[in-house]
Amino acid sequence: xxxxxxxxxxxxxxxxxxxxxxxxxxxxxxxxxxxxxxxxxxxxxxxxxxxxxxxxxxxxxxxxxxxxxxxxxxxxxxxxxxxxxxxxxxxxxxxxxxxxxxxxxxxxxxxxxxxxxxxxxxxxxxxxxxxxxxxxxxxxxxxxxxxxxxxxxxxxxxxxxxxxxxxxxxxxxxxxxxxxxxxxxxxxxxxxxxxxxxxxxxxxxxxxxxxxxxxxxxxxxxxxxxxxxxxxxxxxxxxxxxxxxxxxxxxxxxxxxxxxxxxxxxxxxxxxxxxxxxxxxxxxxxxxxxxxxxxxxxxxxxxxxxxxxxxxxxxxxxxxxxxxxxxxxxxxxxxxxxxxxxxxxxxxxxxxxxxxxxxxxxxxxxxxxxxxxxxxxxxxxxxxxxxxxxxxxxxxxxxxxxxxx
Length: 405
Prior knowledge:
InterPro entries: WD-repeat_CDT2_adapter, WD40/YVTN_repeat-like_dom_sf, WD40_PAC1, WD40_repeat_CS, WD40_repeat_dom_sf, WD40_rpt. With 405 residues, this protein is mainly beta. It has helices at 22-38, 91-96; strands at 58-63, 72-77, 81-86, 108-111, 117-123, 126-131, 135-140, 146-151, 157-162, 169-174, 179-183, 198-200, 205-206, 209-210, 213-218, 224-229, 234-239, 246-252, 257-259, 264-265, 273-278, 284-289, 294-298, 304-309, 323-325, 331-334, 339-343, 346-353, 361-365, 368-372, 377-380.
């Protein structure tokens, strides 16, 4: 039986963020610490209807667009399946406060690809999935009905990124070293004959040979593209206007990058980059490097290292590991040898969540932090009304079933 466990601790009534002041930010950070110490676990077990009988590892995850509420999330798996879950507990269940052997079944599950799915993204009223079968597919978010297939990559597609405020355009990047910009309104876009509206080929090279593009993201202006290399360890910033792509600047730690204190941060070797994430305004770029460092760059002018996150045993050794900002960009969370949460003002003092390797993470709402490991999906929440339960936390009693590998 496949296990999809979900750790849920509910929201605590106030939000962290610059608009509420630093005291609230510190309180929110302490609440997360309290959550970790409590170790209260709620396990949702997936039935055979959820995945194939063989064990399938979840590779990617995301919450659905806010149009579908704040509780629905999707898991993409090694066997090519997509499953939509709803983490909301019924009001009747909340009154009982104790739950025995409850099973959370997916709302929908489909065989989306014939190979593993590396990335999934919520795109307006649709879902985009990127797979090792060299294709990107578009699905209806409500029913998981297939809408379109986009073919063009010559290798596995590693990442898919929707444009901001556009239901039709998105970006894909893959192991073939190519980045494609797609528009589903383009007349040649069909399952039999695909054509991207713009292509960037072999943009990350090492010793003259193209290597995989490990991550990509786009600024809110919808014309500034950022890509990273899996081998060269370089971040490149592109201008997509005028029907072409022009490289504006690059961030190479081997050459050195200016730091906030005017010193130069320099690496003795190139390190692959596993993920990229922009803050809400598109000014700060979070880059997750193989090793022990996560870099925060200010990219508005000359690239500037504003913070280096690490410490407490954090280590990243896989290109499946992702990191992201909190909704108001006061915190970051990253996978690794465990899940780690940093306060942006305290980069060397992370909170460690759990003890197993975490790959995909998501923090779309203040009440929900989603982490993915090889055998489970967990959501961390801070409680809304601490006075109703012991120590301000709901107590859940679930029996965890054995996972057959």
